[in-house]
Amino acid sequence: MTSKISYRLLIFLAAVIFSAIFAAPSIFQTEKGSKINLGLDLQGGLHMLLEVQSDEAVVSKIKSIAASVNYAAKRDDLLMDGLKLEGDSFEFEILDADEASKFDAILHSAASGLDIQKSGEKYRVTLTPEEVEATKKYAIEQAVETIRNRLDQFGLAEPTVAKQGESYILVELPGVKNAADEQRAKDLIAKAAHLQLMAVDDVRQDRAQTISAADARAYGDVIYPDVKNPNYKYLINEIPVLDGAMLVDAKVAFDQHTNQPIINFTLNSQGAQIFGDFTGKNVGKRLAIVLDGKVYSAPRINERIGGGSGQISGGFSVEEAHDVAIALRSGALLAPVKVSETRSIGPSLGQDSIDKSMAALSLAAV
After folding, report:
1. In the CATH scheme, what is the code of domain 193-332?
2. Of residues 91 and 341, which shows the higher confidence score?
3. pLDDT of res. 244
4. Contacts of 13 (CB under 8 A, 6+ apart)
5. Dmax of the chain from CA atoms?
6. Are 228 and 291 in contact (CB under 8 A)?
7. What is the rounded CA–CA span in Å between residue 181 and residue 303?
8. pLDDT at 99
9. Quick one: three-class SS letters along 225-294?
10. CA atoms within a 13 Å half-sphere pointing along the CA-CB vector of 288
11. pLDDT tens string 251-295
12. What CA dihedral angle connects 32, 33, 38 and 43, to 10 degrees?
């Protein structure tokens, strides 16, 4: 009888010890060990409501299509003039009427859902109403997936990212408890991470510090500030050479000369071809690396650059470079997001529930 009791006691003690070992990380919320991930209601964290500005996705898509048309025309030695953006449309004029069929073919291969209006040799291109709605809808769906991917790479456990209504996204981040982590998460979520390689207007660059935005636009240019010195401006061709949609990877590295963090990026085959062709035809000119409307560098092209790779340097801290690389790898947001509501939720209610559950468990065990 005693032997039977001892055998049961040993099994009971072993079960208690194993349970305690495996439950300890969840009970004490230690850094190491597998544990039950507590939700926002139990451990507190950050609650955010984001508004997706989907109209900007239409403008971004039109700009990308215009860049494709510009590249294809130059590749095939077709003559056109006055290519410029007008909000959610772009315009250009062909200089040889016999090339109209070739331009038509370029436009139809560039994208579907285009509304192409012609007046003589002048073209005006917009998206059809159906394509506009589809683009806005996709921008919201893409924002949900992109933000979720960024937070997963950031290392947060089980974040909630869900669409709410027609243009809002709910984000809940359990475990974000201090102001520094909260701000870092906000910056990562809201970062557009829109990378563009753009030609500097070397002919008019000396006027960049004084020219107005309207005058720059008349030349088909935009004015962007230098990321390190916002008072210094660059005058840049509005139609990008290529954009971040062609980026396939981004990694943090360190400059061999300064030991400062940099970001090395790699383009897909199409981007590599465009990059190589542009640098080959523009030796001696400058190419600006633009991220979210700021110029990170504008090196002069010394030779054709093949291989489809480039570098972003902008005085990053290691943490900033890591977060920008995450944003680039996970993909640029097709439309910017605006933080409409932010709440830091404390864990007091959740901790009270946990304490009462532990007390009940202890009484039951006795």
Report:
1. 3.30.1360.200
2. 91
3. 81
4. none
5. 106
6. no
7. 43
8. 95
9. EECCCCCCEEEEECCCCEEHHHEEEEEEEECCCCCCEEEEEEECHHHHHHHHHHHHHCCCCEEEEEECCE
10. 29
11. 999 988 888 899 999 999 989 999 999 999 999 999 999 999 999
12. -30
In the predicted structure, residue 213 carries a pLDDT above the cut 90 = yes
The CATH 3.30.70.3400 portion of the chain extends over 44-192+337-344
Integer CA distances (angstroms), 18 to 21, 73, 357, in order: 5, 70, 20
- Alpha-carbon gap, residue 127 to 62, rounded angstroms: 8
pLDDT at 330: 81
Give the DSSP per-residue string, 21-49. HHHHHHHHT-SSS--PPP-HHHH-EEEEE
| pLDDT above 70: residue 133 | yes
Q: Is 207 exposed, middle or buried (0-12, 13-18, 19+ CB in 10 A)?
A: middle
DSSP assignment of 170-226: EEEEET--SHHHHHHHHHHHH----EEEEEB-TTTGGGTTT--HHHHHHTTEEEEEB
Helix (H, G, I), strand (E, B) or coil at 132: helix
In the chain, which residues fall in CATH 3.30.1360.200? 193-332
pTM above 0.85, yes or no: no
What lies within 8 Å, CB to CB, of 88 at 6+ separation is 55, 58, 59, 62, 126, 127, 132
End-to-end CA distance of the chain: 23
- Token readout for 288 is 């600006």
DSSP 89-114: -EEEEES-GGGHHHHHHHHHHH-SSE
What is the pLDDT at residue 327?
Answer: 85
Residues 161, 203: contact at Cβ < 8 Å?
no
Q: What topology does CATH give the domain 44-192+337-344?
A: Alpha-Beta Plaits (3.30.70)
Query: Phi and psi at residue 29, in whole multiples of 5°?
Result: 50, 50
CA 207 – CA 108 distance, rounded (Å):
38
pLDDT exceeds 60 at position 364: no
